[in-house]
Design a protein that fits this description.
This protein is of the alpha/beta class. The protein contains twelve helices and eight strands. Helix 10 (241-246) links the parallel strand 7 (225-230) and strand 8.
Length: 282
């Protein structure tokens, strides 16, 4: 059973965290922004050989509802989690927005990161906007649920309708439409709500960062990086090409038959890729 813990950030904000398993630490950074930790399956998958550290980002899930919300603030909070629960140096795994957070943390503190696992991120290329492709693919993947999703999206919602809208949208993140809604329902249980203020502020901050020279900073990153993608992610995978090309020590795995959450649809392959990378690159 995971041990629930509390981390105190340098400004006093209380962050929920949990630790499970034995072995070298791996800190997980969930996506969003504005969501909460949904890595139950990953923690169970890796616990036999890895000590998995999970946490809810500031203002999200079980953590204290408190700003400010920015990439810099998220990096500082992650540093507090690393310091208090993982030790002087740790491996990082980030998913979606969390992949960007883990990458940026490694840029700021390369001496505190042993390995970086970048899962289903959206790259660093300011010249190729992936959002229109995502919006088109989302609508195609929603299929018969599109009308209901658009209706909910267009108006004020009750908390239960917030969850319904999120479940419909998240269902598009899975490749197999027969099981997609069930997977999305699991991700939304328990429903801890979306911090929309956090989402807007951090996304705006990421957009500003992407406009800068992140590729140049990636070329200076001297640590092993594993990029994991699902081939059927509705976010186009070419968005990650420039990141892969910029990193001096990177390998990339693309799982066919998987969408944005590859550890759900390619469980064994995901486990093998992560553990092999962490052991082989010690």
């Amino acid at each position: 059973m995971a041990v629930s813990l509390w981390v105190r950030a340098d400004d006093g904000c209380r962050l929920w965290a949990a630790s499970l398993g034995t072995g070298d630490p791996l800190v997980l950074c969930h996506g969003g922004p504005g969501l909460w930790d949904y890595f139950d399956d990953v923690a169970e998958l890796l616990r036999a050989t890895i000590r998995v550290v999970r946490w809810d980002q500031r203002g999200c899930g079980r953590s204290q509802l408190r700003g400010p919300y920015s990439v810099a603030r998220s990096i500082a909070d992650l540093d507090a989690v690393r310091d208090q629960l993982a030790g002087s140096r740790t491996a990082l795994l980030g998913h979606s927005w969390g992949a960007h957070l883990a990458l940026r943390y490694a840029m700021e503190h390369p001496d505190r990161v042993s390995h970086l696992i970048y899962v289903s991120g959206t790259g660093i290329d300011p010249g190729r906007d992936w959002h229109p492709h995502y919006e088109r693919n989302l609508r195609l993947r929603l299929g018969d649920h599109l009308d209901r999703w658009e209706e909910l999206r267009a108006r004020a919602r009750t908390p239960s309708e917030d969850r319904e809208q999120a479940v419909l949208q998240w269902s598009a993140d899975f490749a197999d439409h027969h099981t997609a809604l069930d997977h999305a329902q699991r991700m939304a249980t328990p429903w801890l709500g979306v911090n929309e203020d956090c989402n807007r502020a951090v996304n705006a901050d990421v957009k500003k960062e992407i406009a800068g020279d992140l590729a140049g900073r990636c070329r200076q990153l001297d640590l092993p990086v594993l990029i994991i993608d699902g081939a059927e992610d509705i976010r186009p995978r070419w968005a990650v090409d420039s990141l892969y090309e910029a990193l001096p020590d990177a390998e990339r795995v693309i799982f066919p038959g998987a969408g944005h959450v590859p550890w759900v649809e390619r469980r064994d392959d995901f486990h093998r890729a992560v553990t092999t990378f962490l052991v082989r690159r010690r």
